[in-house]
Amino acid sequence: MIDLIIPYYNNPEGLARTLDSINRDVFYVTVVDDNSTIYPYYNPNADQILRYNKNRGPGYARQWGITKTYKPFIMFIDAGDIFLSKEVQQQLLEIVEDDLYETDVFSFPYYHKDNLTKDTDNRMHGKIYKREFLYEKGITFCAESSYMNEDIGFNRACRLLTDINFFDIPVIKQIDEENSLTNKDDGAALYQKQTRALSLVSIHTVETCRENNINADIEISQIAIALYYWFIRCAAERPEFIQEAWSGAKVFYDYFKDEIKPNLLYVGTKFITKCIQYKDKINFPINILHFVHDIQLNEIIPNYYLTKI
Question: In the predicted model, is pLDDT for residue 65 greater than 60?
Answer without folding.
Answer: yes
